[in-house]
């Protein structure tokens, strides 16, 4: 069980050979792969960060543009409303004026017809009163 | 083999492994107790504590193993046989 | 090797048997080899090389299938090396630490997962390569050489200043440390794996069905941890040799 013999040095040599073989077959290529992958991931990360920054810049720009156009649209709406109100007020005033004019015209016509009617009535009254006078006076005079 | 030497070797082997188990037993108990305390105090460090604990337990275990090696020498490769 | 005679009664059971310390010897010239260790270690090496070739045969940027698995393994051992040696220093030592981890891990799990004992050998039995002391001592000695080499190549003769660095009184202990490091590394791995296999074998001997399964699962767990511990400690020793401030922290992690 505790007998040392030629197994020991041969085992050591065998282990060293295994180490050389594994170094060539296993450690070197896979470490290279790992390093390459690391650098690939790192470059990709840098790339992605750049893109992210760019995207954020674009987002900011778009938001600014959006805000500007929103402000513009609000101003437009406000001016349109104002104009519409102005037009509405104008139209209302015109309509009121027209209505006033018509009413005045109608009033004038009414007054005129009233005056004519009064005049006609007066003449009739005159004629009638003359007839009455004639009848009354005629009888007495006649 | 001389029967006296055989008997003495067997007793010595038993004592070697038994005595060699005492110290590491106490030490492993202490270490595990402290590790559990540490985990209870800081549950987020559990992984690290467990790894270190296993390594230190292996070191303490190896003390018993030295006793075992001596016992095996006495049983199977007795230099006085 | 010699076995105590009372263990012979175990081999009388037909279902399972416990063979400890028997080896399937190969003789080359007048050198003796443990054949069963080489057979299993070649299988382990074949598994590792096949997986590597399959994983790197068609490398894609988005990993799939076995490439994904092997990349996970690579990242795991890379993290071990990086945690111990630091971001700057770990690259040249990654093959050593990574191969240590992968070889020990696959060896340990092969001992638990591949039913080696169904294959009959003239003597001894197939088991995990790491359950033989020769393998673990070889790995531990290579680790020692590795950290000596790391210290020399990095700091030249100034590496020896660590022996007398805080105070020359500690010189014997510092020298002793260089011997205890590979000793503890190899015995820890060997003992754990052998203990695991022995416990499973004894339990199978007592209750052949279902009962050993939890112990086998525990064995899988400890074998994985031992591979991790070996690789981590190798990294820590190399780091200590490269950095060279004090020898106190080496077992702290």
Automatic annotation (TrEMBL), chain B:
It holds the Pfam family ATP-synt_C. The record marks 61 as: Reversibly protonated during proton transport. It is found in: Cellular thylakoid membrane; Membrane. It is a multi-pass membrane protein. GO terms for cellular component: plasma membrane-derived thylakoid membrane; proton-transporting ATP synthase complex; proton-transporting two-sector ATPase complex, proton-transporting domain. Gene3D superfamilies: F1F0 ATP synthase subunit C. InterPro entries: ATP_synth_csu_bac/chlpt, ATP_synth_F0_csu, ATP_synth_F0_csu_DDCD_BS, ATP_synth_F0_csu_sf, ATPase_proteolipid_c-like_dom, F/V-ATP_Csub_sf. GO terms for molecular function: lipid binding; proton-transporting ATP synthase activity, rotational mechanism. The chain crosses the membrane at residues 53-77. Residues 11-74 form the V-ATPase proteolipid subunit C-like domain. Keywords: ATP synthesis, CF(0), Hydrogen ion transport, Ion transport, Lipid-binding, Membrane, Thylakoid, Transmembrane, Transmembrane helix, Transport. NCBIfam families: ATP_synt_c (TIGR01260), PRK07354.1 (NF005608). F(1)F(0) ATP synthase produces ATP from ADP in the presence of a proton or sodium gradient. F-type ATPases consist of two structural domains, F(1) containing the extramembraneous catalytic core and F(0) containing the membrane proton channel, linked together by a central stalk and a peripheral stalk. During catalysis, ATP synthesis in the catalytic domain of F(1) is coupled via a rotary mechanism of the central stalk subunits to proton translocation. Key component of the F(0) channel; it plays a direct role in translocation across the membrane. A homomeric c-ring of between 10-14 subunits forms the central stalk rotor element with the F(1) delta and epsilon subunits. Belongs to the ATPase C chain family. This is ATP synthase subunit c. The lineage of its organism: Bacteria, Bacillati, Cyanobacteriota, Cyanophyceae, Leptolyngbyales.
TrEMBL record, chain C:
The chain crosses the membrane at residues 34-55, 93-113, 133-152, 189-211. The keyword Transport applies. It comes from the Bacteria. PROSITE patterns: ATPASE_A (PS00449). GO terms for molecular function: proton-transporting ATP synthase activity, rotational mechanism. Keywords: ATP synthesis, CF(0), Hydrogen ion transport, Ion transport, Membrane, Thylakoid, Transmembrane, Transmembrane helix, Transport. Key component of the proton channel; it plays a direct role in the translocation of protons across the membrane. Belongs to the ATPase A chain family. This is ATP synthase subunit a. It comes from Leptolyngbya sp. NK1-12.
């Amino acid at each position: 069980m505790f007998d040392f013999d030629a197994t020991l040095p041969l085992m050591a040599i065998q282990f060293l050979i295994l180490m050389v073989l594994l170094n060539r077959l296993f450690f070197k290529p896979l470490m290279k792969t790992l390093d390459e992958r690391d650098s690939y991931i790192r470059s990709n990360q840098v790339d992605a960060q750049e893109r992210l920054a760019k995207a954020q810049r674009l987002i900011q720009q778009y938001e600014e543009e959006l805000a500007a156009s929103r402000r513009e649209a609000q101003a437009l709406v406000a001016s349109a409303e104002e104009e519409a109100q102005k037009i509405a007020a104008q139209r209302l005033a015109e309509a009121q004026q027209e209505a006033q004019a018509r009413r005045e015209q109608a009033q004038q016509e009414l007054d005129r017809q009233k005056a004519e009617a009064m005049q006609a009535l007066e003449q009739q009254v005159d004629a009638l009163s003359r007839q009455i006078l004639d009848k009354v006076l005629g009888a007495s005079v006649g | 083999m001389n029967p006296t030497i055989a008997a003495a070797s067997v007793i010595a082997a038993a004592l070697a492994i038994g005595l060699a188990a005492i110290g590491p037993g106490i030490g492993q108990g202490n270490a595990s107790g402290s590790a559990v305390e540490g985990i209870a105090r800081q549950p987020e460090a559990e992984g690290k504590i467990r790894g270190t604990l296993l390594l230190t337990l292996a070191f303490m275990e190896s003390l018993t193993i030295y006793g075992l090696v001596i016992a095996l020498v006495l049983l199977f490769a007795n230099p006085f046989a | 090797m010699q076995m105590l005679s009372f263990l012979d009664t175990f081999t009388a059971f037909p279902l399972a048997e416990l063979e400890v310390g028997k080896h399937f010897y190969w003789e080359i010239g007048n050198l003796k080899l443990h054949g069963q260790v080489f057979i299993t270690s070649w299988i382990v090496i074949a598994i590792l090389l096949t997986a590597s070739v399959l994983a790197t045969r068609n490398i894609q940027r988005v990993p799939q299938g076995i490439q994904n698995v092997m990349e996970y393994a690579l990242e795991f051992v890379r993290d071990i090396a990086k945690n111990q040696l630091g971001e700057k220093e770990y690259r040249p030592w990654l093959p050593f630490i990574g191969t240590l981890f992968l070889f020990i891990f696959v060896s340990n799990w092969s001992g638990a997962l591949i039913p080696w004992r169904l294959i009959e050998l003239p003597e001894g039995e197939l088991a995990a390569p790491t359950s033989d002391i020769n393998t673990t001592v070889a790995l531990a000695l290579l680790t020692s050489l590795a950290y000596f080499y790391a210290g020399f190549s990095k700091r030249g003769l100034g590496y020896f200043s660590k022996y007398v660095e805080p105070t020359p009184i500690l010189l014997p202990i510092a020298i002793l440390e260089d011997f205890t490091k590979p000793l503890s590394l190899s015995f820890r791995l060997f003992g754990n794996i052998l203990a695991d296999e022995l416990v499973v074998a004894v339990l199978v001997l007592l209750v052949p069905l279902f009962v050993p399964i939890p112990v086998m699962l525990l064995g899988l767990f400890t074998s994985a941890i031992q591979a991790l511990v070996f690789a981590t400690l190798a990294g820590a020793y190399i780091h200590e040799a490269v950095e060279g401030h004090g020898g106190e922290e080496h077992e702290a992690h």
